[in-house]
């Protein structure tokens, strides 16, 4: 439309120059609240007549500002746990710059919230009075926002610049500085309170009168929160043993595997809560069927078996990770489980000759599932290995539900006892 025929709300905003960006814009949301273009026009006039610099809840600048803050907040909620868990105090200039920028932005956000108009829950009229806005903000989100905006990025940047400038620092003073930096980084977890910005944004959108907007952002918030919880759990899986300098009883895995394990465990808990225990078992069974069915099919004793039996066996699989040069088991050790190689290479060291096994192979002996015995070889990981194991006790419990297969397995173990290598 031409300006002469533009809606009244748009004409008012256009005639106010730069101040128009702080006035309510004419869109579906404002129309759903105020009911008509004339009502939006009156709201613009009401704000202009107040003579106070306040950002209207339906103004275009507030929409762009909120989207910017949501994006920065989401990046912070991803980056802060990664910085603490993985960067080990060497985050680099770019990352420190982003931290300083984020801290500055959140400090500005605290100040701007005293000038941000509010749509109260029990009223469709925007609150534009500064005193009322201040009282509402101080009683609600002010304290979490101040804590989350604490400029830890500035502190870390100054401390690191100081540590780099003191090249002649003694060893004890340098180690003390490292401990201080680690303490500050742990304290920086308070910045995760910035999640409140996401909570407010999604609460505000969920109160909108547009149903398709509510549905879209509810789904988006669900996926974002699921992702963040999985991501945080993955970082914790690495961070906790790192604080203890990776003790000897810490399970062996690389950085990526620790993180992936944490993500998978958090996701599995959320699936169980969302779907219930029965459906959760079905989900896990489908995952294991896709991942491990080929591993079972490579073993002669499991070929051409009933599908229900195989699916029940798959549910008994346990995932294990070994690093390069780890001994999976020693010769003459008790043989109580069978191993399936999902990814990696192992070396089977027998008295006669060594043998290398790789993806899709199995070891540990088929008959050990039926009759426990001593290992006849030592198996060592040549690379980082991701294995699935099936214990004899778990397998015996499965056979109790399948008596016909149990009798067949016992015959199979008896006939092939001399032919099958029992490691």
TrEMBL record:
UniProt keyword Membrane present: yes
Pfam families: cNMP_binding (PF00027), Ion_trans_N (PF08412)
Record-level GO cellular component terms: axon; dendrite; HCN channel complex
Entry membrane topology: Multi-pass membrane protein
Biological process according to GO: regulation of membrane depolarization; sodium ion transmembrane transport
Coiled-coil regions listed in the entry: none
Domain Cyclic nucleotide-binding residues, every copy: 301-416
TM helices/strands, residue ranges: 64-87, 93-114, 135-157, 177-194, 215-234
UniProt-annotated location(s): Cell membrane
Keywords from the UniProt entry: Cell membrane, Ion channel, Ion transport, Membrane, Potassium, Potassium channel, Potassium transport, Transmembrane, Transmembrane helix, Transport
Domain of life: Eukaryota
Molecular function GO terms recorded: voltage-gated potassium channel activity
PANTHER family: I[[H]] CHANNEL, ISOFORM E (PTHR45689), POTASSIUM_SODIUM HYPERPOLARIZATION-ACTIVATED CYCLIC NUCLEOTIDE-GATED CHANNEL 2-LIKE (PTHR45689:SF8)
Protein name (Swiss-Prot/TrEMBL): Cyclic nucleotide-binding domain-containing protein
Record lineage: Eukaryota, Metazoa, Chordata, Craniata, Vertebrata
């Amino acid at each position: 439309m031409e300006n002469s025929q533009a809606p009244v709300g748009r004409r008012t905003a256009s005639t106010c120059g730069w101040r128009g960006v702080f006035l309510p814009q004419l869109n579906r949301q404002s129309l759903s609240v105020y009911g008509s273009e004339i009502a939006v026009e009156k709201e613009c006039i009401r704000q202009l007549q107040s003579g106070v610099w306040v950002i209207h809840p339906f103004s275009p600048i507030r929409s762009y500002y909120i989207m910017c803050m949501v994006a920065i907040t989401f990046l912070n909620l991803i980056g802060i746990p990664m910085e603490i868990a993985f960067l080990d105090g060497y985050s680099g200039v770019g990352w420190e710059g982003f931290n300083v920028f984020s801290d500055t932005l959140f400090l500005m956000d605290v100040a701007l919230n005293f000038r941000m108009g509010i749509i109260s829950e029990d009223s469709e009229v925007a609150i534009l009075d500064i005193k009322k806005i201040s009282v509402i903000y101080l009683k609600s989100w002010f304290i979490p926002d101040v804590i989350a905006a604490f400029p830890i990025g500035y502190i870390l940047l100054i401390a690191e610049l100081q540590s780099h400038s003191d090249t002649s620092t003694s060893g004890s003073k340098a180690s003390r500085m490292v401990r201080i930096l680690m303490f500050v980084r742990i304290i920086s977890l308070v910045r995760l309170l910035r999640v409140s910005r996401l909570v407010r944004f999604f609460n505000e959108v969920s109160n909108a009168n547009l149903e398709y907007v509510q549905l879209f952002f509810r789904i988006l918030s669900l996926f974002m929160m699921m992702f963040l919880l999985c991501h945080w759990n993955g970082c914790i899986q690495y961070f906790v043993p790192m604080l203890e300098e990776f003790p000897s009883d810490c399970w062996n895995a690389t950085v990526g595997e620790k993180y992936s394990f944490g993500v998978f465990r958090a996701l599995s808990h959320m699936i169980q809560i969302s779907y219930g225990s029965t459906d959760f078992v079905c989900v896990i069974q489908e995952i294991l069927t896709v991942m491990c069915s080929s591993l079972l099919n490579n073993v002669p004793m499991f070929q051409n078996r009933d599908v229900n039996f195989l699916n029940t066996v798959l549910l008994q699989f346990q995932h294990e990770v070994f690093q390069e040069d780890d001994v999976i088991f020693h010769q003459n050790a008790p043989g109580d489980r069978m191993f399936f190689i999902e990814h990696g290479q192992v070396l089977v060291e027998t008295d006669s000759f060594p043998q290398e096994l790789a993806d899709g192979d199995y070891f540990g002996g088929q008959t050990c599932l039926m009759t426990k015995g001593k290992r006849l070889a030592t198996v060592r990981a040549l690379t980082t290995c991701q294995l699935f194991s099936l214990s004899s006790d778990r397998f015996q419990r499965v056979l109790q539900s399948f008596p016909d297969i149990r009798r067949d397995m016992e015959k199979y173990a008896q006939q092939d006892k001399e032919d099958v290598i029992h490691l």
